[in-house]
Every structure is written in C-alpha cells, then in structure tokens.
DNA sequence: GCAAAAGTGTTGTCCTTACACCCATGC
DNA sequence: GCATGGGTGTAAGGACAACACTTTTGC
C-alpha cells in the first residue's frame, strides 16, 4: 500500500513488518456521520433537521451528525446518533456515500459518511428538542449548514431509487395500512401522481400484501381494506434481476 | 453537532464561535482509498491486484490502495492512485461505499473509501509491475489481505447492477466494436448467457449504436459489423424511470 | 343527497422470451 | 467442404398505460 512507483521495478518488495508503524505515518482526519432521516406525515415527505450550533451558520439547518468515536464501527456510529437524537433503535439505516471535500467544514477538513433512513413519524414522538430538532418539509428546503444540502439531495435521489426496488416504505406505514396510504407514500417520495387502478393492480400481482379482512375506522368516506406486507414471502422470493435498461 | 442530549432542553443553544477548536476535539483516523479496477480480456472479467507488502499478509493479494493526503479530495485521491499505479487518467471512477470496521487493518483503525472502475485492458498496458501488479481473474479469487475480499465482492455486485443501468461497458470495448464483443462483455460481467438474437434486438431498439459501415478484420469466420456507441444521444435521452419493481 | 374515496376491467401497445435456419469468411 | 460465428423473424405471453362508472360511508 505504501510503496511508490518511484521504487525500482522488479525488486523483491521488502515486506513491512510493523503495520502499526506504517499506519502511524498516515495523515489522520476527523470523521463524522450524518444521518438523513426521512419521515412521512400528512402525505408529505419530511426530513429530521436541527439548527446548527455553529455561529457562522446561525439560523441555518443541519443534518443530525456527530463524530465517530475511536474504534467505533461506522454503522454503529450512525445507529448511536439516531438513538441519541430520537430514542429509536428499530430503524434500518443504509450507508449512502462519503463526502470529503477539503473545505466542506469550516473547522478544517472533516470527512463525513452519510446514512439514510426512512421511518414513520407517528411511531416515534420526538422527546428531544435540543437545537430545535424538528421535521422539515423536503420540498421547502432553503440553504443549509456545511454541504448538508448536497448530502440531502444525494440521499433523496438515493431514496427515490431505493424505494422503487425495495419495500422500504412499509417500515414507515402503520402495521396495517390501506392501499391509499401506500400510494400516498409513493407519490410523496417520488414526486409524481400514479394511476390508482394500475397501482393497485401492480401490488395485487406481486402478491406480497396480506388482506387481513379489516377495514379502516373513523374515516370520513368509504373505508378501505387494510393490508399487511408479507415480509417473509418477500425475503424468500427476492429475485435476481437481469436486464439491460438505460 | 457536538451538543449531547444530556443538555437541558429548551435552552437557547450557545453558539460555537470557533469551529476549528471544535474539530480539534474530534478523534482522528487514518483514511485510505482502495480502487477496484475491473478489466476485460479474453472474454473474462479481471481485476487489478497487487501482492500485499505487509509481512502478515505475505503472498496474499490486495487492492490498489493508498492513504488520502492532507486536504486531498476523496475523488482526487482515487484518480491519483489510479494514475500512479497504471498511468491512466481517462477512466471514470465511482465511489461505492466506505468500510470502517475497527479491526479491518492490522496497523490499527483505518477507514477506507472504495472506488470502482472498469476499463479496457488492451488500451492500458501495465508499465509498472511493482508488487507483482497484475490482472487477476475475478472468478478464481482466493483469500485476500485486509477485508479486500469483502470490498471486492461489494464492488462486483455494485458493478453488475450498474452495468445494467448505465452504458459503462462501452468504455472498456474498443472504440469500434462488434455486437459479439458487446455481448461477451455483458455475459462475462453478469455471469449469465444471453440469447444472441434478443440481445441484438434489445440494442437495436435502443437506437444508441451507430452503424459505421465497417466490418471486423482478420477474424476466422464471417466478419461482423462494427458499431460505435452514441454517447451524445445517450446523454440527451437519459430518462427518469418511475416504476415499482421488487 | 352530497362529498369523498373505494373498488373494479378492458383494450391496445409494447417488451420479453423462446426458438431455427441460411450466410459469409478463413482455413 | 467444413467449422465458426454473423445475421435474421415470428409467435405467444406478460407487463404497462390509459381510461369511467358504481359503491360505500360520514355528514
């Protein structure tokens, strides 16, 4: 890893005995994790943000982030931050990518690894309001602290793609849900309107929704049927898709 | 970013004036980039590897990696390493994800960001052979140094998905290529066999191949037509796909 | 009875798949 | 002339898009 191509070619490489000494020579950088936590409420996609507590970003919004501790696994750091900020631990987090522009942080070079999650706002009341933690509409985002707007945009596009290929959305609906709720969710995240009949047919043909023979309660219109998602069947039937499409 | 939820709630947060002081308190970690460089030759997918120069990994294979320099952008580090090792700079690199298990490196904690590339072996003769740099068959990989086998597996799956959705493959074919060469490429990367007629129909219907009215030369069978890929048309026609499929 | 959303089917189009024969070239 | 891969067409099935009316409930 450390040999440079200025070394003579065809030498037997001398082996490095002490890996610790080697690593000690590497430049070291501060490392953080930023969590982009999307939630859904009132048929709108929201994202969990705080106010930055850096003076130069006064009034600007920021993602939930924190340093990664010594010897802390990246995934663990993301789950820890999510738990510290929201009290939740039953949420899936996915690493999206890392951001390392040298001037992305005003305090000097800081690398950050972005994680993305999607959860049901009504399942997780915010008990902590430090730094004005709140759900913010995704569609009305102004300037943000650091490069957090860019990170959020990347994660939003990632989420839009992801939700079309994976049943992410069901973690964010109530356990029992109507097809209308499901469709609202997809429309909100993808930013499109979908044909209701075709949407229903699509999910009917997948055969991954379990009709639990219950109806919506207390709705001001004809109640719809309620379904559960068949996670077990989904796991068994994950197909390996091969097809060229660009 | 630094406030803990043990702070009293509903306080006006005190603003941090000096971001540099803040960042100085963050733990710092060594950061590397590892490049997973796939190439194609003799109808086989290969990957560029070296022999590890760490004594505890003697004889084991390793990805092309190096430290990220102070104030070096992550992407720049990846391109630099690719250039240093292979002399190339006309190659696309994509960041795949970061790996940060605390014990992934025997010299202590090192975070690495994996980048992936795909190139034409015959366009880029290896002039450097330090550390036994060579193209290795992807299908016959044994144990590797560090967690490089895991990184390679993740990048391979990433590549398989990517090549179905983006015209990556054309960077690795000759400028003028036959449909057979194109199909060999897809079959090698996806690890499947494809119906020749349907494959050709697929690309014909995309209308992204330019028939240049030339034929293969010096082949021991009926020569095939040669095509170029219409990158310009592709860029213009990138479609935003919406469809649920899992 | 009115507002609001649930529920439902058909048709045309396009894409995908499976499959077999003749053609051009090098040797 | 034989071996090798190039080139082509069709039929069936499945997926998708477009589209309108009746039903159920709360108020």
Annotated CATH homologous superfamily of the largest domain in chain A:
Nucleoside Triphosphate Pyrophosphohydrolase
Low-confidence stretches of chain A: 2-9
| Strand tally of chain A | 9
Task: Provide the CATH topology of the largest domain in chain A.
Answer: Nucleoside Triphosphate Pyrophosphohydrolase
Order of helices and strands of chain A: HEEEEHEEEHHHEEH
Largest sheet of chain A: 7 strands, mixed
- State the secondary-structure class of chain A: alpha+beta
Task: Return Rg of chain A in Å.
Answer: 23 Å
Please state the second-level CATH architecture of the largest domain in chain A.
Alpha-Beta Complex
- Write down the CATH class of the largest domain in chain A: Alpha Beta
Largest interface: A-B, 83 and 83 residues
Beta-strand percentage range of chain A: 15-25%
Mean pLDDT score of chain A, rounded?
Answer: 90
The protein's oligomeric status is homodimer
Silhouette of chain A: globular
Commentary on this structure:
The structure is a homodimer of 246-residue chains. Chain A has helices spanning 19-24, 74-86, 148-165, 179-190, 196-206, 231-237, and strands spanning 28-41, 44-51, 61-62, 64-67, 93-99, 111-120, 134-137, 209-215, 225-229. Chain A is of the alpha+beta class and 246 residues long. The first copy, chain A, has 2 domains: 31-164, Nucleoside Triphosphate Pyrophosphohydrolase, CATH 3.90.79; 168-237, Arc Repressor Mutant, subunit A (Orthogonal Bundle), CATH 1.10.10. In chain A, strands 1, 2, 3, 4, 5, 6 and 7 form a 7-stranded mixed β-sheet that branches. Residues 2-9 of chain A have low confidence and may be disordered. At the A-B interface, helix 1, strand 1, strand 4, helix 2 and strand 5 of A face helix 1, strand 1, strand 4, helix 2 and strand 5 of B. Strand 1 (28-41) of chain A pairs antiparallel with strand 1 (28-41) of chain B. The structure holds a DNA duplex (27 and 27 nucleotides).
């Amino acid at each position: 890893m450390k040999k440079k191509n200025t070394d003579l070619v065809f030498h037997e490489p001398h082996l490095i005995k002490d890996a610790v000494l080697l690593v000690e020579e590497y430049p070291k950088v501060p490392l953080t994790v930023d969590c982009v936590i999307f939630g859904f409420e009132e048929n709108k996609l929201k994202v969990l943000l705080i106010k930055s507590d850096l003076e130069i970003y006064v009034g600007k919004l920021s993602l939930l982030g924190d340093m990664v501790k010594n010897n802390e696994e990246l995934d663990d750091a993301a789950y820890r931050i999510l738990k510290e900020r929201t009290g939740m631990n039953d949420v899936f987090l996915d690493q999206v990518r890392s951001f390392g522009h040298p001037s992305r942080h005003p305090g000097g070079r800081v690398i950050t690894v972005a994680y993305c999650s999607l959860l049901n706002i009504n399942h997780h009341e915010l008990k902590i309001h430090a730094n004005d933690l709140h759900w913010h509409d995704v569609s009305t985002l102004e300037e943000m602290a650091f490069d957090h707007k860019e990170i959020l945009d990347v994660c939003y596009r990632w989420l839009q793609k992801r939700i079309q290929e994976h049943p992410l959305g069901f973690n964010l609906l109530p356990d029992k849900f109507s097809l209308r709720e499901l469709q609202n969710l997809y429309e909100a995240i993808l930013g499109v309107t979908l044909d209701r009949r075709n949407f229903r047919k699509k999910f009917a043909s997948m055969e991954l929704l379990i009709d639990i023979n219950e109806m919506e309660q207390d709705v001001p219109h004809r109640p719809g049927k309620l379904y559960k998602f068949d996670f077990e069947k989904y796991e068994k039937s994950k197909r390996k898709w091969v097809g060229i499409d660009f």
